[in-house]
Amino acid sequence: MGNSDTEPATGRHDPDCVFCRIIAGEIPSERVHEDDQLIAFKDLHPQAPVHVLVVPREHRRDVTELAQQPDLLARIATVAGEVAATHADGEFRLIFNTGASAGQSVFHVHAHVLAGGKLAEGAL
Ligand code: 5GP
Ligand code: ZN
Question: Ligand 1 test: best mutation among 32, 96, 105, 107, most atoms within 8 Å of CB?
Answer without folding.
Answer: 105
